[in-house]
Specification:
The complex is a heterodimer of chains A (about 280) and B (about 325). By secondary structure, chain A is an all-alpha fold. Chain A has twelve helices and no strands. In chain A, helix 1 crosses helix 2. The radius of gyration of chain A is 20 Å and the shape is globular. Chain B is of the alpha/beta class. Chain B has two domains: about 220 residues, Rossmann fold, CATH 3.40.50; about 90 residues, Alpha-Beta Plaits (2-Layer Sandwich). In chain B, a hairpin with a 4-residue loop joins strand 11 and strand 12. In chain B, helix 3 packs across helix 4. The chains are: A mainly alpha (about 280), B alpha/beta (about 325). At the A-B interface, helix 1 and helix 7 of A face helix 2, strand 5 and helix 3 of B.
Chain lengths: ~280, ~325
């Protein structure tokens, strides 16, 4: 049996488990309901803002200036015409991603280590396939939930915001695509940290502590000479991934890919050597 | 085909300063049922866990069906394991869990489904297919775990305390199942059982290894371990003494039998122990000869056993 087939089977089971467990259903429901509420608010604000825009103000120029201050001139120019509510949703998704990742992934490995259920798998699948299956299971679960939230926002933006569907879908898919590699990086970190302990509650605490630590690193990096520290924080890569320049997008993909790849590789290497 | 399903050489496992298993060397023949015996802390489960690839040896080597236990791809459908304390995934349904395990053994969809149904039928659990693992009783869960161990007719099955916590009837059924499985694969299915239940092991196993404080203190066939092919024991009625008068145990005529090597009578235990020359007679012949003498002398006999019994042997060694 190829490792690919093993990973596929473990991932499929993980997805089934995620969306059937009480935790998974509650998380998905809360996320989707929250997303819907926020979406309606964003879309309504967007419309009100546009309707009450002072005469003579160029929305395009105003947005370009706003985004240029946030991301730099090139990206500012690119985002000048995007629906503001969809961008807000991207920011919301990026902030929510670590929380969602932590809550969905904290017991994926630690729970099976605690109850030694992992022993049913280690005689049948390579440990690397098991860990990769857990990782992909978590990543896809997070993507499904965030995609659901995004779809709600797209619908609300088109319906309440009064924007053309093609505009909403065009920008919506682009913004959602930005969250895919960033989600991959968060899942990699959660998989590495969560698989080191045998107690799910400790796993949850350690994952949150690590995520908070990475955010602190980003903050510290802003005030220190060691600016590179900021690149350990996955959400920093939205700057690159939103850029119109291919080289910047490649950098963003490389950064998030490196975080995801290295953390999953480390989790696998440790798991290969540990006693279960 | 290799005549040994398991080869262990100098196997050692240390947890920090504590040595749980110390230089254990043993082999398990293909097609046999082999027991891992010993008191708590003897190193049975640690040895078992190294055989199953759960734990990595600190020193020494383990070969399972000719491969390291971690060679999952080579052993995938050939090795089945019942871990002692692993809990079934609570949210999985029994059928879907067994089907998933069968798929991981590289069985195609239809065959995996069939294997899962067969395995569950074998443990008399057909009705549990749609039940969540988390809702099973201890005995039911144990049987489902046993079903996954025998899934797809593996060549080697490792069972850690397969009947622990089961009621006597279910435990008996499990022993019957293990016996039946022993004969599967044309009698070449090897089963290794780690257990506290010495009576059960003596009943099922062809051979065993006795561990104590991490060390191997004895190993061999069950007949060798219990000395079943070199001594017979007669338990006599209370109040019986040695002597030649009627009703007493006459030692001289028994000692004079050409097949007998030595005779001893335990006055307190009321047990007559007769060691015999196994190249000249088997246990059944000697039992017949000695019984004739005892009955002629009107000795009242309470029981006859071949050898010391595994329990006694383990008590002597550990």
């Amino acid at each position: 049996m190829s490792p690919f087939a093993e990973v596929q089977l473990v991932t499929a089971r993980e997805l089934r488990k995620s969306f059937r467990s009480v935790k998974g259903i509650v998380l998905a429901a809360v996320s989707l309901a929250g997303g819907a509420g926020v979406a309606m608010l964003f879309a309504w604000l967007d419309r009100v803002q546009r309707e009450n825009m002072p005469a003579g103000l160029d929305v395009h120029d105003a947005q370009e200036q706003f985004f240029a201050r946030w991301y730099g001139p090139n990206t500012g120019k690119r985002l000048a015409d995007c629906p503001y509510s969809l961008w807000m949703m991207l920011i919301g998704t990026l902030w929510l991603a670590p929380l969602l990742v932590a809550l969905l992934d904290f017991d994926a490995v630690s729970g099976e280590l605690q109850h030694r259920s992992v022993r049913f798998w280690t005689v049948r699948v390579r440990r690397s396939s098991y860990m990769l299956g857990k990782y992909f299971g978590a990543w896809i679960s997070v993507l499904v939930v965030t995609f659901g939230m995004n779809v709600i926002v797209w619908v609300a933006t088109a319906a309440v915001g009064g924007l053309p569907v093609s505009t909403v879908l065009g920008w919506g898919v682009r913004f959602f695509a930005v969250s895919i590699p960033i989600g991959a990086a968060w899942c990699g970190i959660a998989t590495l940290v969560g698989s080191q302990v045998k107690t799910p509650m400790l796993s949850l605490l350690f994952i949150f502590a690590t995520f908070f630590g990475l955010w602190l690193l980003r903050v510290v990096a802003g005030f220190s000479q060691a600016e590179w520290l900021a690149y350990l924080y996955p959400n920093i890569y939205d700057d690159f991934l939103l850029s119109p320049r291919a080289a910047d997008v490649a950098k963003g993909l490389l950064g998030t890919g490196l975080i995801a790849g290295l953390t999953v590789a480390a989790a696998t290497a440790i798991f290969e050597r540990r006693d279960v | 085909m290799d005549s040994h399903a398991i080869r262990v050489a100098g196997l050692t496992k240390r947890f920090g300063p504590k040595t749980a298993v110390d230089a254990v060397t043993l082999t398990v023949g293909t097609g046999s049922v082999y027991g891992l015996i010993g008191p708590n802390g003897a190193g049975k489960t640690t040895t078992f866990s190294m055989l199953a690839g759960y734990l990595r040896p600190t020193e020494g080597s383990v070969e399972v069906l000719g491969f390291a236990p971690t060679a999952v791809d080579a052993l995938r459908s050939r090795l089945g394991v019942l871990p002692q304390d692993a809990i079934l995934p609570a949210s999985d349904r029994v059928g879907e869990f067994l089907f998933h395990m069968a798929r991981l053994q590289d069985l195609p969809h239809a065959k995996a489904l069939e294997a899962a149904h067969t395995a569950l039928d074998d443990v008399d659990g057909r009705a549990w297919w749609d039940q969540r693992c988390g809702s099973l009783s201890h005995g039911m869960a144990k049987r489902v775990a046993l079903a996954q161990a025998f899934l797809g007719q593996p060549e080697l099955v490792l069972l850690d305390e397969p009947t622990a916590g089961l009621d006597p009837r279910v435990a008996w059924e499990m022993r019957q199942l293990i016996r039946a499985k022993k004969g599967s694969r044309g009698g070449r299915c090897t089963i290794v059982i780690s257990s506290h239940n010495l009576q059960e092991l003596e009943e099922i196993c062809d051979g065993a290894a006795i561990l104590d404080r991490g060390r191997l203190v004895a190993s061999g066939s069950m007949a060798e371990l219990t000395a079943a092919n070199e001594e017979v024991r007669f338990l006599v009625a209370a109040g019986t003494r040695r002597g030649t008068d009627p009703g007493k145990v006459p030692l001289s005529p028994i000692r004079d039998l050409p097949t007998v090597a030595s005779v001893d009578f335990d006055d307190e235990g009321l047990e007559l122990v007769v060691s015999f020359k196994r190249q000249e007679a088997d246990a059944e012949t000697v039992i017949g000869q000695v019984l004739t003498i005892l009955l002629q002398n009107r000795v009242r006999i309470s029981g006859v056993t071949k050898g010391r019994g595994l329990e006694q042997r383990v008590m002597d060694l550990t």
